[in-house]
Amino acid sequence: MGVQRKPLFAPGTAWAYSNTNYITLGLILQKVTNRPVGELVEQRISQPLGLTHTDLGGGTGFRGTRYAHGYSDPTSYEGPLVDGLVDTTGLDLGWAWTASGMISTAPELATVYAGVLSARLVRPPLLQQMKAGIPTSTPGVGYGLGIQEEVGPCGNRIWFHTGGVPGYTSVAAVDDTGERTGVLLIPSDVDSEARQSASNSCSTRSSALWTVSPARRLRPTEGDHCRTRGADAAGGQA
Are 113 and 181 in contact (CB under 8 A)? Predict the structure, then answer.
C-alpha cells in the first residue's frame, strides 16, 4: 500500500514523517538478516548496552509486572475508564512494530541515545550520515536519518526524537557527544498545555535527567524501571 502512491518529493529535497517508512525498514532488516527484528534489537542494542528492560513489543500488555498504565481519549479507544480517560494498557499495538513499538524505561532509553551519539552503536561514518539532516517545517529544526536536530538556547546542538502510541508519549534528547541525555515518558497521549510544555522543555533544553559517560562501558543508570510503550530509539537502530 505504501508504494501505490507517488513520492511527495525527490529523495533528499524535503522532509515528511511517515510510519510507513519505519515499517518498511523493519521489513528490509528482516529480509537482509533473515531474522526477526526483535532478535536484532536484543543482539545489537540490548545486549551490547546491558539493557534488561528494553525490547520490541508486540500484541497486548507487557512482560513482567512493573509497567506504567497508559491513558487516552475515551472517544477514540475502548477500555476501562479512569477519571474520564480510557486505560489503553491492554490494547494490541502489534501494528506499531518498528515505527513506535519499542518498550523501555527512561534510564534505558537514555542509554540507547547515548550509545548512538557516542558512536558505540553506530560506526562514525554512519553516524555522520544520520546527522546529515534537512530543514523541517519547524524553524530551526532539522531531520536526519531517524533523529531530529536543534540548536539549544546556549548554542549547544541537541539531537532528539518523540514517540507515541495510544496512551503513551516519549521525548528523548541527547547532546552532540552522547554525554548528556534527557528523557521524558508520559503515560498519556491526550493533548494538554502541561504535556506540551514538558515535551518542549525536554527536547529543546536536553535536561540532564540521566547522564551516561561514553568513556566507560555503557550501562543503564539508576532510576525508576517502570516500562512504557512508544519509546522511540534514535534512528530505530537494529
Answer: yes
Residue-wise pLDDT tens digits, 85-98: 999 988 888 889 99
177, 168, 166, 158: which is closest to 104 by C-alpha? 168
SS3 at position 154:
coil
Q: Collapsing DSSP states into helix, strand and coil, what is residue 153?
A: coil
Report the predicted TM-score, pTM, of the whole model to 2 decimal places.
Answer: 0.80
Local structure of residue 155 (DSSP, 8 states): S
* Confidence band of 197 (pLDDT split at 50, 70, 90): low
- Domain spanning 19-236, CATH class: alpha beta
DSSP 63-129: SSS-B---EE-TTT--S-EETTEEE-TT---TTTHHHH-EEB-HHHHHHHHHHHHTTSSS-HHHHHH
